[in-house]
Amino acid sequence: MTREIPRIHDQSTPWLKLLVEFGFQNEPFILGSESTSSWLARKEWVLPDGRLNNEYLKKSYGNAIVPTLVNGTSYELTTLTEFLENMGDPNVYLKDWHFQNEFGTSMYTPNPFFSRDFVNCETWTSNNDENPFGDDYRFVYIGAAGSWTKFHADVVCSYSWSANICGRKKWFMMSPGSEEVFKSSSTDSGYVEDIREYQELFEQANVITFIQEPGEIVFVPSNWYHQVHNLEDTISINHNWMNSTNLGLVRDFLSKREEDVRNELSDCVDSFTEEEFEEKVEDILYADARLNKSKFLKLCELVRESRSTRKDDYDCRNHGLEVWKCISSPDCYSSITSICSCSISFCAKCSNFVKQLEYSIVSRFLGLSFFHWAKIIYFKFQMFTESQLSTLYDCATTSTRLPNDFADNEKDLKTIIRYGELFKACHSSNSIDYLQKAEDLTEEEKVELKKTVTQKLANASRSEDDIPWNVNIVIGNSHVAKSLRPIINIKMPSGENFEFDIDSFAQFRQQLAQIVLVVNPQE
């Protein structure tokens, strides 16, 4: 049986009910047109017959410079007036216009569920120097009938919501994991661009198809792949956003992408110092995912600081102040939804609850106690900085005493000894196999320890054979997610320069090894 997306027409539906039923569970829903009936955008941007009010738009915003996607491949800038006067070509789609940056948000009022938004609804949103994302993720889209958006999931595992101001859209959507049915090796994204060409796979992928009517708002949860088609001339307001309920998914996404980047660079890791390599990983991760580990932690810090002045703590009967645990605990859902019945604003009760939820979530990722401001051990590896792990490695592999102040009240002596033993074994074998096989380590510990060992082994190798060479990483444009192209330049002692890409360099190394074996079979 074909699944349907729940439609909610009752404007008195408590926002906490939306949070629990859809935010906690990462499920989609549609708010009926009643939810936008009071928006100025619905009144000013639309004619009585439901069509775009082009004259109002040109008069109010006509000189604005807007981005248009042409043939689904390249962006061109034009004025809004010029776009509207030539509107009609479905191959030219006004997308990703940061309307709100220039004209504010007076034309619409998000539902309270949507307004708990760490990306677009905070004091740091309008401060690009402080904003971890460098900009907002609030957009206006305008497209002619027939324009469409390719099959995709939203950036960095974010949520999104899309409000149709006028026009109708056809959606294809599927739950996380189902997108694997549409994998493709011939596209940059790794998935087909138009799933309509593979309708025989719809049943296998449990594709959900629905029409979004004028005034309706679609909530797209994290990692739900979708494809959207404008059935009529359409204008929509869209936010990509994060809050307490999907921050864990964002963190998992970044961890996976960081691992991918490290694997991409594994052949050239010994071309950098430890600090340079980590900086390069962060730079590439940000270019690829538009967020990285340091900026994610900065976001958590900003949220924690802004929520630290809450007046009353919500004390869960199951989890106390560790409210983040409520997200995956159905036993807590009914007590949360009974806090209040607010539907269009926040009262003191629901405000205190959600601030406590947000505070506990970011504190979890920052490794801060929920009861103190002191550091705690959330994962064992968080007891150690990268510098401390480096020191532990050096001491363990050279039988040198650790500094007197290395062991403090937060460090478990058994863990220090265990890490030291693993470092020594990896150093002796010149490999990370011992870490990979260690059953008593968490995956998080393995990742952190592997970084230290990999760098140390690389540094040791470089000191034995100090041929000057460097690696330049060339990153493609921001719309191509996996366009890493390492170029290896080797400067020989004679002054000659050789340039390789990864494939040709691998062949060069193999040929060089064969020559060495011929000249000296003992090598």
TrEMBL record:
It comes from the Eukaryota. Pfam families: JmjC. One of its GO terms (biological process) is positive regulation of translational termination. It catalyses: L-lysyl-[protein] + 2-oxoglutarate + O2 = 4-hydroxy-L-lysyl-[protein] + succinate + CO2. One of its GO terms (cellular component) is nucleus. InterPro entries: COMM, JmjC_dom, JMJD6_ArgDemeth/LysHydrox. GO terms for molecular function: 2-oxoglutarate-dependent dioxygenase activity; sequence-specific DNA binding. Belongs to the JMJD6 family. This is Jumonji domain-containing protein 4. The lineage of its organism: Eukaryota, Metazoa, Ecdysozoa, Nematoda, Chromadorea.
